[in-house]
């Protein structure tokens, strides 16, 4: 109980302290009461669904330069996948197994990854004769892309080329425009 009181947020730790004080002689009962209260206040299926949707909605669109963000997205998707595995939340989160749920996430990806997903999803649909791949397939796709896009072995230096500007062998700029 002490650890819960210590690590819960301000309002949660307040009621946890109160419950601990009321059950000073029976720590097991106090702990059970704290978990029940936490479930009532924060664990209802609609609340969990809302919190997960807020996380996804707050997640920004990103570019190829932000490859590290794929892991951040993967963390959210893994959290959703875990919640979907819980029978208490599975019905509310079932829409993630459809294009309606997944396409909202795909829109946040860089164009190249959107295209890769479209190809993979199309192959899955064709191979498995389903209307859309399941959420778990999408999570695995993001997991694979996170590993590939963040692999240091595949980080390439790009020369910054400006149209009309060239560099000589010493790296000095010169223009080939007629202006």
Give the SSE layout.
Layout: H1 2-7, H2 10-22, H3 27-42, H4 45-58, H5 69-85, H6 87-90, H7 99-106, H8 111-128, H9 135-149, E1 165-167, E2 173-175
Antiparallel strand pairs: 1-2
Helix pairs in contact: 2-3, 4-5, 5-9
Notable features of this structure?
single chain, 179 residues, mainly alpha, 2 domains, two-stranded antiparallel ribbon, 2 strands
Structural write-up:
It is a single chain. With 179 residues, the chain is mainly alpha-helical. It folds into two domains: 2-42; 45-153, no CATH class. The protein has nine helices and two strands, in the order αααααααααββ. A hairpin with a 5-residue loop joins strand 1 and strand 2. It starts with a helix and ends with a strand. The mean pLDDT is 89.
Count of domains: 2
The SS-based structural class is: mainly alpha
The average pLDDT score comes to 89
Beta-strand portion reads under 5%
- The strand count comes to 2
H/E topology pattern: HHHHHHHHHEE
Low-confidence stretches: none
How much helical structure, as a percent, in the residues?
55-70%
Give the strand order, joined by hyphens, for the main sheet: 1-2
Number of helices: 9
Question: Cα-atom Rg, whole angstroms?
Answer: 25 Å
Biggest sheet layout: 2 strands, antiparallel
Task: Note the overall shape.
Answer: extended
End-to-end separation in angstroms reads 76 Å
């Amino acid at each position: 109980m002490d650890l819960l009181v210590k690590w819960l947020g301000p309002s949660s730790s307040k009621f946890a302290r109160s419950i601990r004080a009321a059950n000073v002689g029976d720590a097991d009962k106090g702990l059970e009461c704290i978990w029940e209260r936490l479930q009532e206040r924060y664990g209802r299926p609609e609340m969990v669904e809302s919190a997960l949707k807020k996380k996804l909605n707050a997640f920004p669109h990103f570019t190829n330069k932000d490859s590290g963000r794929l892991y951040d997205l993967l963390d959210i998707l893994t959290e959703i996948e875990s919640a979907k595995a819980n029978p208490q939340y599975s019905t509310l989160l079932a829409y993630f197994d459809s294009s309606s749920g997944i396409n909202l996430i795909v829109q946040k990806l860089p164009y190249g990854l959107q295209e890769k997903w479209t190809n993979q999803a199309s192959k899955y649909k064709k191979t498995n004769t389903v209307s859309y791949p399941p959420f778990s397939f999408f999570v695995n796709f993001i997991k694979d892309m996170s590993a590939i896009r963040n692999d240091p072995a595949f980080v390439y230096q790009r020369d910054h080329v400006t149209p009309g500007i060239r560099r000589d062998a010493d790296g000095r700029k010169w223009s080939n425009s007629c202006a």
